[in-house]
Fold AAA domain-containing protein.
Amino acid sequence: MARIISVVNQKGGVGKTTTAVSLASILAEAGRLVLLVDMDPQGNATSGFGYNSRDMQKGLYEVLLGETDFRSIALDTIVRGCRLAPATMSLAGASVELVNMEQREFRLKMAFAEVDHVYDYIIIDCPPSLGLLTVNALAASREVVIPVQAEYYALEGLGQLVNTINLVRENLNPDLSVLGVVLTMYDKRNRLSRDVMDEIYQHFPDRIFRSVIPRAVRLAEAPSHGKPITLYDAGSKGARSYEKLAREIIATESAPAQIKV
Ligand SMILES: Nc1ncnc2c1ncn2[C@@H]1O[C@H](COP(=O)(O)OP(=O)(O)O)[C@@H](O)[C@H]1O
Ligand SMILES: [Mg+2]
């Protein structure tokens, strides 16, 4: 069965998509079969692999509505073993349309039933909100990775995120656990960053990845070339830091996260 991991934080611009795309690629390069699910109507994971959402006929939206399935929408990417379930423009309307549907929190989970034995990993890139799309992702996941930008205001909203995860666990998905928090855009010269780090340690004492993602211009450039960092600049410090993170995740394959926040 696939290890299903949501990359979640309701704040925009904290590195969710960069983390999801980088991890999916690196896990595939390490020999895993990976499905990256673009759950954000902005379609940044889709464009990050060089696809244009506007050209897509079908995507995640149609899957959530039950009109098609993952097998029909999954696209090959330039990374062997990494496939992409693209977001299309219509996904923006999904959170409203799903409200009146049966099993509205479980649309993604139901759709996974048909592919979760095919992939080793399913990585979900969540939108910057705690709405129904994110709830679908959390209801369908076993684990959560939370990117937190190493900035002073980054901890705002973290309590609300933890509450949402707890609510989903209590009401929709008892198996959900936090795999870890990853610090992104870290600048060790910046005193503020270290303060933020200390505070996050207090929030999630044993749930912080050892790998920290530095602020790195190559990571910011890669999406505009339609490539994950490991293909854009394999030797860059951004690529190496995400490789370390992926190794930490691979190391927990035999014993996925059990600890609940
Ligand atoms: N470690 C990093 N260093 C520099 N720029 C980054 C880094 N991580 C992400 N970025 C850039 O910051 C912006 C927001 O990142 P993104 O992954 O899209 O965040 P989110 O998905 O949470 O909105 C993007 O332009 C991205 O290329
Ligand atoms: Mg994003």
